[in-house]
Specification:
heterodimer; A: mainly beta; six-stranded mixed sheet; five-stranded antiparallel sheet; 11 strands; 0% helix; B: three-stranded antiparallel sheet
C-alpha cells in the first residue's frame, strides 16, 4: 500500500513564527514531491515542489527533502494569518507515469 | 493562466439519477483527473486519463465511469447516484513533462454534489 502520512492538525502558530509541516511516504523509490495549499471552500493550488535531497526556498516557503528518511517538510517563515489553510503533501511514487498520492493534509492556523 | 472549468459549483440530485459532471481545461494538457474530497478522508482518485479515449481506474472507481472524447474535456458519470456519493468533486489537469513522472496539477473550483 503506497501511503503518504501527515498530521491532521490543527497546527496553531502565532503570527510571525515559523510553521513546520511534515510528511512521510512509504515508497523509497519516490521521485518527486509537492505541496498544495487549500483554503477553506477552495480547491488545492500548488505552492512548492522538490525533486532532490536538501532544501528549496521560494520566498517565505522552504521545502526540505530527505529521501533516506522518506521525509519531506514545508517551512513557512514569518507566518501570516493568510497562511491559515490545509496543506496537502503529494508524492509521485513510481518511475512510470502514475498519479500522485496525496496525504490527508495538515490544517494550519496562524493566530494574530 | 491555466483554467480548469467545472460546469457546476453546486448540484442536487436524487437517488438513482444519472449524473454528469463536466470538466474542461484550456491549456492543451494531456493528463486529466477526477477526485472526490470528503472530511477526514482527503483527496481520493476516482479515474484519470493520460490521453484522449484513454481512461484508467483510480482508487475508488466503483459507481463511476468517465468519458474523454476530446482532449480538453473529461466527464465523470455517476450511473445511478447514491447518497454515499454526496461529496466535493474536483477535476484536475496537468501537462506531461517528457521523460519524467512529475505532475503539477491544476484544479478546477469543484462541484459540491448532494444526493438526496
Amino acid at each position: 500500500q503506497k501511503e503518504v502520512e501527515q498530521n491532521s492538525g490543527p497546527l496553531s502558530v502565532p503570527e510571525g513564527a515559523i510553521a513546520s509541516l511534515n510528511c512521510t511516504y512509504s515508497d523509497r523509490g519516490s521521485q518527486s514531491f509537492f505541496w498544495y495549499r487549500q483554503y477553506s471552500g477552495k480547491s488545492p493550488e500548488l505552492i512548492m515542489f522538490i525533486y532532490s535531497n536538501g532544501d528549496k526556498e521560494d520566498g517565505r516557503f522552504t521545502a526540505q527533502l530527505n529521501k533516506a528518511s522518506q521525509y519531506v517538510s514545508l517551512l513557512i517563515r514569518d507566518s501570516q494569518p493568510s497562511d491559515s489553510a490545509t496543506y496537502l503533501c503529494a508524492v509521485n511514487m513510481n518511475s512510470g507515469n502514475t498519479p500522485l498520492v496525496f496525504g490527508k493534509g495538515t490544517r494550519l492556523s496562524v493566530i494574530a | 493562466d491555466v483554467k480548469v472549468t467545472q460546469s457546476s459549483r453546486y448540484l442536487v440530485k436524487r437517488t438513482g439519477e444519472k449524473v454528469f459532471l463536466e470538466c474542461v481545461q484550456d491549456m492543451d494538457h494531456e493528463n486529466m483527473f477526477w477526485y472526490r474530497q470528503d472530511p477526514g478522508l482527503g483527496l481520493r482518485l476516482i479515474y484519470f486519463s493520460y490521453d484522449v479515449k484513454m481512461k484508467e481506474k483510480g482508487d475508488i472507481p466503483e459507481g463511476y465511469s468517465v468519458s474523454r472524447e476530446k482532449k480538453e474535456r473529461f466527464s465523470l458519470i455517476l450511473e445511478s447516484a447514491s447518497t454515499n456519493q454526496t461529496s466535493m468533486y474536483l477535476c484536475a489537469s496537468s501537462p506531461p513533462i517528457p521523460g519524467t513522472t512529475n505532475e503539477k496539477l491544476f484544479f478546477g473550483s469543484g462541484t459540491q454534489l448532494s444526493v438526496l
